[in-house]
Give the backbone structure.
Amino acid sequence: AQTVTQSQPEMSVQEAETVTLSCTYDTSESNYYLFWYKQPPSRQMILVIRQEAYKQQNATENRFSVNFQKAAKSFSLKISDSQLGDTAMYFCAFIRSNNNDMRFGAGTRLTVKP
Amino acid sequence: KAGVTQTPRYLIKTRGQQVTLSCSPISGHRSVSWYQQTPGQGLQFLFEYFSETQRNKGNFPGRFSGRQFSNSRSEMNVSTLELGDSALYLCASSPSGSIADTQYFGPGTRLTVL
C-alpha cells in the first residue's frame, strides 16, 4: 500500500524566516509523482510544487523548494522568506504510475506570525 | 480560463436522504477526480472519470457513485446518507488524467448530514 506521512501536525514561523515541512512516503513503485498542496482557510486546494520521481534535480518554484531524497523516500518542502499569506494547511501527496488514486498525508498546519 | 467549479457550495441533508454534487472541470480537461475530506480521515480518493468512464475507484461503499457527461462535467451521488458522510467534497480536473498532469481543485462542496 502507498502511504504518505507528515509527522508535524502544526508548525509556526516568523514572517521572513525559513521553514521546512517534512513528508515521507512508502511505495514499491519506481515511477511516481510527488506534490505539495496548500489549503488556506478558504479551503481551495492550490498546487505549490511537484516533483517527478525520475528527476534527481529538486523542484523549485520561487520561494518554495523541495528536498527530494528518493532512497530515503523523503520529500520535504522548504518555504523561504515566509509571508503571512503562506498561512495554510499543507498537504504532501503522492500519485503512482497508471493510477490516479492520489494519496495525501494528514497535513501540516503552518502559521506565519508577524 | 475559468477554474474548476462545484455546485452547490453548501448542502444540508438528513440521514437517509440522497444527494447529488456537481463538478465542472476546466475547459479542455477530460479527467475529473473526486475526494472526500474529513477531520478524522483526511483526504481520501473517491473515484476518477475520464471520457465518461470510471477508471479508478477508492475504497468507499457502493452508496457513493458518480458519472461523467460528454462535456466532461461530472456528478457524484451519495445515497442513504449517514452522519459520517458529512465532509468537504472536492473535485479536481486534469487534461488527460495522466499522472504527469497537475490536478486542479475546485472550492469544494460542504455537505452536512443531520
Q: What stands out?
A: Chain A has a mean pLDDT of 92.
